[in-house]
Write a structure and sequence with these properties.
This protein is an alpha/beta fold and about 350 residues long. About 45% of the residues lie in helices and about 15% in strands. The protein binds ligand F0G.
């Protein structure tokens, strides 16, 4: 039974007797065997299906703790900047906690589903004429001035809660995978996964850490380039970030595990999205398909060793961004409502 992160992993989290038992039954997401693509890639491939969290992304794992702590500490409201998923999650948990929520989004650069979520959960949504990096600076300043709790990943509780994804993977596999491949934007999630695996290792539950492969989009790849990007651009709007807040800990994760950062093109991302959906029945948003794009590239270039156990993290649900998926496939053929028309269309 799903219990939510605070109950399932409370013993590893900084809870007190006063921490509210907030839950939308987040976490406990399936580790789906990706059989067809795994066979093509000659690896034992799994998808950590984070799109099945209550608001459709991995953000819920850390948000539940961040909002519970904001409530415990007496914050008047929560505030965040977001490329979309953080805002959806913040708005939902703030609603459940009975707190006001303020959201700053880069104007015109957020997928429709995510925008609709933030609004329907009752957040006050402001579209900033500027990119995510600028919106985050504004949110931080606003939080400091107003005494609101900032629930971006600069809030340490967010990353403490997000470690739970690493724990679930290890609990299920009985060990760490050989490789963990995930999209990198603000670089909080890769940092949280690393902290999660390290924590299990310190408890004696793991013998080895996975190799981290952090994947960015070509037009928003500060960690690959080793320099901030002033005007990040990519179809994967979730990871359209030029100045990752957790760059240092992300670099540490990659260096420590002999991993790497890679970037992939928008075309590779969109091709991977279609492959994942049409080969294995998994629909993830564009950012979440960057890992598969990277694996397909490594395979083509002969750099993917056979037989590895690989987990790719499908960070967000494909339904959040139907427009980008629809733009790459043939529209439905319209036919008359007759059997003859059906016969003609399908060649019956
Ligand atoms: N995948 C998805 C679907 C995301 O929404 C994000 C980040 C990432 C990957 C990257 O995670 O930032 O921890 O490296 N979304 C944030 C947001 C920035 O505002 O929703 P990260």
């Amino acid at each position: 039974m799903k219990k939510g992160i605070l109950r399932a992993y409370g013993k590893y989290l900084p809870l007190t007797a006063d921490t509210p038992a907030l839950s939308l039954c987040e976490g406990d997401t399936p580790l789906v065997p990706v059989c067809n693509l795994g066979r093509e890639l000659s690896v034992n491939l799994f998808a950590k299906y984070e799109g099945l969290n209550p608001t459709g992304s991995f953000k819920d794992r850390g948000m539940v703790l961040a909002v519970a702590k904001a409530l415990e500490e007496g914050a008047r409201a929560v505030i965040c900047a977001s490329t979309g998923n953080t805002s959806a999650s913040a708005a939902a948990y703030a609603a459940a906690a009975g707190m006001p929520c303020f959201v700053l989004l880069p104007a015109g650069a957020v997928a429709l589903g995510k925008l609709a979520q933030a609004m329907i959960y009752g957040a006050r949504v402001l579209a900033v004429r500027g990119n995510f990096d600028r919106a985050l600076e504004m949110a931080r300043e606003g939080a400091a001035r107003a005494g609101y709790a900032i629930v971006n990943s600069v809030n340490p509780y967010r990353l403490l809660g997000q470690r739970s994804a690493a724990w679930e993977i290890c609990d299920e596999l009985g060990r760490a995978p050989d490789w963990l491949v995930l999209p990198v934007g603000n670089a909080g999630n890769i940092s949280a996964y690393c902290a999660g695996f390290e924590f299990y290792s310190e408890l004696g539950l793991l013998k080895s850490l996975p190799r981290f492969i952090g994947v960015q989009a070509d037009g928003a790849a500060p960690l690959v380039r080793g320099a901030e990007v002033d005007d990040p651009q990519t179809v994967a709007t979730a990871i359209r970030i030029g100045r990752p807040v957790s760059a240092r800990t992300a670099r540490r994760a990659v260096e420590m595990t002999d991993g790497r950062f890679m970037s992939v093109s928008d075309d590779e991302i969109m091709d991977a999205q279609r492959e994942l959906a049409s080969s294995d029945g998994l629909f993830a948003e564009p950012a979440s398909c960057a890992p598969l794009a990277a694996l397909l590239r490594l395979k083509r270039e002969g750099e993917l060793p056979k037989g590895l156990t690989v987990v790719m993290v499908l960070t967000g649900n494909g339904l959040k961004d139907p427009d980008s998926a629809r733009s790459r496939v043939r529209p439905p053929e319209e036919i008359d409502g007759t059997f003859e028309a059906l016969s003609e269309a399908l060649g019956l």
